[in-house]
Amino acid sequence: MDRSIQVIAMCLITNLGLIFFLYPADIIASLSTGHWSAVLLGFVIHIGMVSVYIKGLSKCAPKNVIDLFQSAGNVFAFLMLLPLAVYFVMMLIITVRAYAEIVTMVFLAQTPLWTIMLLFLALSTLVSLWGIESLFRTSMLIALLFFPFLIIVVILSFQNVDWHYMLPFVDRKTATFSYVFHRPFLQSLFAFVGGFLFLGFIPPYVPYQSRKIIMASLLLLPFFLISVYVPLLTFGENTASKFPFPFIMAVDTVDISWLMFDRITIFFMISLLCFVVLFLSLVMWMTLQLLKRSMHFFNAPIASVLLAATVFIVCLLVPSWSNVEQMIWWNTYLRLYAAFVIPLVTFALGVSRRRKEVIRP
Amino acid sequence: MNLPEFLKSRQEVDSDLFLHPMILAYQSVVLAGYRSLIDLPQTVTLLRQLTLNADAADKPLFDLKSGVGIPMNDPGEREVLNAIADGQMLIYSDISDRCMRLVPVSRTLSRSIESPTTENVVRGAISAFNEELDTNIGLIKQSMPTEKLQMQSYALGRDQRRRIVLLYVKGKIHERLLQSISQKIESLPEKDIPDLQALSDLLGFSKWTIITRYNTTEIPQEAASALAAGKVVLLLDRFPFALTLPILLSDMFVSQSDRNVPALLQLSLLVLRVLGVLLSILLPGLYVALVSVNPEVLRIEIALSIAGSRVDVPYPALVETLLLLLVLELTFESAVRLPKTIGPTITMVGGIILGQAVVQAKLVSNVLIIILAASTIANFAVIGVQNTMSIRIYKYLLLILSSMFGLLGLFVGIVVICAYLGHVNTFGIPYLSRWKAGRRYG
Amino acid sequence: MRKCRLLRMALFPLMFAATMALSGCWDIKDINHRSLPIVMGVKQTGQKYKVLLLIPEVSRSEMNIKIISESGITINAILDEINKSLESKLDLLHLKVIIFERPVAEMGLAQSIESFMRSRDIPNKTFAAISDGTLEPLFDKLGASSQGGGTQLYNFFEKNAGWSPEVVQTRIWEVYRSIDSYTRDVAIPSIKPGRTTTIESTGAAVIKNGRMVGSIDSEESLLYNLFKGIGTQGKIEVMDRATVKIVADRLTLSSTLREDQATINAQLNLKVTVLETVGDPSNVEIKQEIDEQLSSRFDTMLRAAQAKEADILGMGQFFRNKLSREELQHWRSKYYPSMKIKFKVHVIIQDEGQLKIR
After folding, report:
1. Where does A198-319 have alpha helices with state H?
2. Where residue C340 sits, what CATH number does that domain have?
3. Of the N and C termini of chain B, which has fewer Cβ atoms inside 10 Å?
4. Residue range of the domain that includes C104
């Protein structure tokens, strides 16, 4: 049974949920011209890591990352995966807090923050408890329902574009890649890393073909480019860099007189938020998977409720948006670890296992 | 056991039991059975014919070879009662201790084959199942003349025996599904099955589910196409519906009779039904979300006209919507209960008088009336009555969520529903799977 | 098992009650308890701002208009004050037009535009306009003719309603963009109460870095719209010897930069139909007349704008590939005033109406 389509849908969903909010602001902040180079660089890293990761996994086909790491020794697995678990928990906290903040900033000004966080967490706990297979089926259905809509909004967002803002195409900073080790660019990797680690956790529950996944990842490139370039082309670099959520602002300028609704942004954002909810449940499921392996005495419902409660309490303790940004920055080291170390180690382990099997069949 | 004594004492508590003495093949015998189930004069005529034949062939009456009935040797109480409860007749002689049972001419207690009452067929066969199990099996066999159609028959229950027949098509059926169903049924042979909920309990489905795990249909054609698609059909005695397992989301949107129209029209029907479901679920929630939480989404002209129509309504949009929905649900429910002749009254009272008056009395806004009417009409675009009921439930979830979080709540509610649909499965076959005969897509 | 079931049964009513109680926790106001202003006017008196709001008042049968004004130190303080005194909640989410009084624009709009952009509720596609006279007569006029619930002014600018090609449409995000832009300024339409109609367009104000530096008239606004890419279809050009209607237009531009001398070649292709002729002009004469009229009009407009160093046509955009970012910063002061533009009009007379031209 090949569930590649579901996995592709999930891949698109998780990445799209992350792309359109924080990513454009980071990229616009990291460069003043030639933003395409930062987008492409990030994307190449993404594709590279995804293929390394998948390659490593396919070498030991039905196993998942945890099995693979455990086969190299329990202590090793624990030490390697502990930062990953911490990263996941951090990601849960940041995502829930940041997106709740975005919701109140953009369209639910009256609603208290904690109720929105509670909504996100309750929902994602529920969905993650229903199991990974149903999560993937859900993602498929959600994708079918929301994608046409999303594509329409993305196309409409070009309404106020002035292509001249694309120029100048390149300058020294772009050409020398000197922006790479600065904070905004490293922060922008947030959008890439979140969306692919799950590929290592789902076998053997949800089998997929690795080549199809990599091909589908290429589909994301236009979205990355659009998310950065639509605000740039609408407002120009000078103005776009002043917005915390440039893409949302750009979509807000779209005026459609034939629709019965006035603000299409809101629908766009909410469908992305639904994607984020699915992403949260996926991360939650992965975290629980890691927890279960290390501590056997947890049973699933209690552990997930505990996890959600912890995340909720930490979220409540974060007082302001600047703290959220600070947290995203602190998380960078773990993110780099998750983005580079985990795929490479997976690849190394996969290759060495394959070799062992070849030697003594 | 003394059979005559036992039956006499039984007759005192069960007046339906007749004991009819007569002379048969020069012996004095008594016929026993239920008056309500047996057509006695016809049976006696038949019996005389049979005994004449037996006599001519020189066979004794109480012998299997006489061809009259099946002899019972020293039957127990239970056996006797079961036989007569099944509608069979007993013949025993007063003097010698011989007894046998036979299948009599029974009274016609079922209706004839009619057109379906809960489903309508526009193009396609319109005969429907009725209460007679054997008729139903026959109907299916007729619409599916293949030797691959196989069936297993069960009689469940301790006090009441209820026959259940499980039909499937060899080669198309998913073996694991068949095994797990028959295992479940065989595991509790003593369980009474008075209703479908008991059956779904027997099959191990959760009591609190919103989606029933089987589809019901009244039309043999539908059942046959389900069989051909590799599903299992369950038929119950005295139940004029076939249950098909497993249920899939597509059952809500695609029916067998659609296949009688060209593909493009099929597709547009499908789209229409999907739209119907979406509208019916979304509209009330959308109204509440737009009116009370996110009015900025509406165009100014619509916003002003809705605001105008709500000007004197004293309560929040959620309460307004719930009130009117309650009236609508009551209308459905009473329309089901009412005799057909008074049915139109409800339409008039509920639809015209109440709808008009409620707006004029400024209890609800007239935009809401339009929205709920559209939502209600859309609700019944799906196939199958049980599906319309689950849709009615989802609506309330979305309503409450969107009264709290506006459009965000509405969409999050959709995610909850989608996740629930993704979670539901029947014997490991997901509700959301695409089904092809013999294999399974994720 | 029994306990578990009991717990579950208790859970449902509990959850229901909790949601009911929770939704009362934050104030959700139904649409009929919100005031939805459509037009906001901003004027300045001494150090203080004065804000006028045009709020439709709805009831089942009719729509009326309410005009509310208040003054204070900042716009937000005023809005807060108005909200306090209103019987329903002030909700600016549906604000369609913001009108600045001319002196406010001359003092500078940057501060207020920025606060509008920052605010969560004012949509950034609200139209901006400048009132030539004082605001009060304009609002009175709007209030007096209020069949549409006060949406006339909005419809005046809305493309699928009452908009006409010589009215400039500028939204506040465009104004905001121009404040920081190196290469693009903006024109804001100016209006006054009409004598017979509700509103009359009087051209547009030239805004440079958020400050009004000049004005252009209606005819020049047409050219502005042309360069902005908004169609001019339907515009009627009256000349000495003929009157024509523009049915299609296409503008192609190319730029060259030689030794800091910026040059633009503009070619305007127009398709027109003839509505009226005076005397007996030939096709060629009509074409020539259109060319002359538009070119001279364009030249005066450009020269005026160049003198103010306000690049309302966004010509700088065409030099983004020729100048570096640092040079673009000085576009307005260094390159733009000396920029030359070769404006050519190529006219096709699509048809001559129902009568032949000789």
Report:
1. 210-218, 220-235, 237-240, 246-252, 264-294, 300-317
2. 3.30.300.210
3. N
4. 29-216
